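name: query_chain
kind: protein
chains: 1
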Amino acid sequence: MSSMKLYKFRPLADEKDFERAKSIIETGCFWCSRFSELNDPMEGVFRIKNHDIIGDIYKQKNSYNICSFSTAAAFKKPCMWGYYANGFKGIAIEIEVDKGRVKQIEYKDDIDTMNGSGSEAIEAILTTKLTSWKHEKEYRFLGKAENNEHHVGKITAVYFGEPHADIVNRRTIYEENKKLQSYQCLMSKLITIAQGKNIDHFSVKVENGKVKKSR
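structure:
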C-alpha cells in the first residue's frame, strides 16, 4: 500500500501544550475526538427525510474517534499556522501514513442529504465539509476503538514556527514579549525530546507568502 506525508498542527503556548506535544512525540499516538468536539459548527450535519433514524445515526457518528491532518500544500499556508499553531508559536508534526488508513475530506457547497444509516453513509458524513474549509486540504483518521489515542502513522519530523524570523529588530521583539520567550523555552525542550527519538526537526518561516523550512 502506498504512503503519504501528512501534518498535524499543535500550539506550544504553555506547559499543557508542551505535555501534549511531548506525549505525541514519545508515544507516536495522536489524540482523537468525537465529531461534536471539533471546531466546525456544521460538523456531521446532514439532511434526511426519515427523522426516525436520526437517533441511530447520532449513535453511529458518536462511535468514531477523529483526528485531522493536513497535506503539504496546507502546511505551506501561513494562515494554517495562524489558526492551529498559535500564530507560528507552535509546531507541525509530520507523519508518513498508509493512504488506506486515512480518508480525504470532500468539500461541497451545501449540506448532503443522507439516504441511509450504513457505515459507508456515516463515514461519508464525517468526511464531508463545506467549501469554506477547502483551504485546509484535510485528511482524517477515523477510529472505532474506545481509546482516544491512536497510532496513525510514523512520525518523521517536527517543524517549529519561527515568528518574526527575518525582522531587523527581532531580538528586541523577543526581549519584550514574554509569550515568545516562553515559546522559545518550550521549543528547546521539545527539540531535545525529538532528538532523543531520532526524529528530524526544522524551523519554518514565512518567505514570499509561503511557509518554508530550514535547519
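note: Helices lie at 15-27, 54-62, 72-75, 78-84, 119-126, 170-175, 178-196.
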